[in-house]
Amino acid sequence: MRSMGYNFESAVADVVDNSISAGCSNVRICFPSDPLNIFVGILDNGKGLSREDLFKAMRYGSESSLSVRNLDDLGRFGLGLKSASLSQCKKLTVVSKQGDSISAFCWDFDYIAEKKDWLVLELNRAEMMELPCYEFISNLKNGTLVLWQDFDIIEKSSNGQVYATLKEHRAKLEKYLGLIFHRFISRSNNPVRFVIDNSKVPAADPFLEHHKKTTIMKEVDLAVMDSNGNERHVKVTPVVLPFQSELTDKDIVKLGGIENMRTKQGFYIYRNYRLILWGTWFGLPRNELTKNARIRVDIPNALDDIFGIDITKQNASIPKVLQIQLRKKVEEVMNISVRQETHRGRKEDDDEIEHVWNRMNGRDNHVYWEINRESQLFNFVKSRVPEEAYPYIEMLVKEIEGNLPYQQLYIDHCNKAIETSDRTDEIVKNAFMLIDFAKSSGVDVRQYIDSVILKSEPYTDYPNLKETLYTHYGL
Q1: How far apart are CA 13 and CA 42, in angstroms?
Q2: How far from chain centre, in Å, is Cα 464?
């Protein structure tokens, strides 16, 4: 139960889901200032819980994932509070207040081990007053405090440096919460204010919706049947971001950094306006020139099982029934993104040969070179690695492009010092791999050799390659 895949940031976010479902307007997250008093507190001013309801909430699996829930409920299995919290610590205390009534219960793994029974501890008022952050909840009319203590997992992984590790988590948490809950923070009606210690959390803006150069396409409503046969609705909104050159430093910060603009294209899945998963195409076609394309998908909590939302709320999948409908919208937004990107710089060599490198005309009569991400070889490599590796491939390619030793290449070329070896065997082997991969998809081999392989670098430089390939495939 403690090993469901939460990291620190996602665990905090799962607890915050309960705060938002409770109708809070403020969430405060407290970190320790004293290495001798280690804790993390997550406080909200929501409606709070009665003693009876708090006791029920401390149960594992207190609610069926199939039960009917409020439309704005961010919960899933009735496990989030416990599983998220105890993935980080051994001692979870929850204090909740409604008016003059305040109650608290605690799961303490050491106590469970001692008693050899699943016994939850109830705290009296004197014990509550000794808790970190108690002064904050005592000053609220209604609210709930979730308190984490005894960070055994962090202690083991950090060689006892729990305080320092929590400081590192604090630095990451602001950006994470600002992204996951950005629509709650930035909404005009009843916004939710997040504070980490005394620092306000700003909302991220992965779609730069207020930028005048952002293209927001018409929202599409897709009907989907839930597990009980009821019709539900999924809202899909394609968005294309402006060029990088048109972004201010403030825009880049809202996007989470320029690397996020390059690598976090694709679908952004929201469940009740809470971001679940982002920066993936779910296996649908993607293109380097579409790095500005984002598809916002809003799903209701009634479709959790259809979309495969897991307990940690970090994973989702698009059901097959929706993929066909989404493909058309994806192609539309990708085409717009391609047109925008190619305006920035066009290929100087616009012949029929597919080059490994593209010489691009940029602005102000400058040129730059970039690896052709549309080449057969490049896309073959991408098809053979998991999607989560794409950002690392892109990072490597960008570094290669940005660090070409132009001057030394020129000098070596002039001095005829560059060695060129016979790569015939290697080229033939690579061509076989590309053809076999295409053949497995039902492509006509002869046509593929003639129209693709023999019109792509580096294969165009080997005049005998056609005969070799034809012989090998019995053509």
Answers
A1: 10
A2: 47
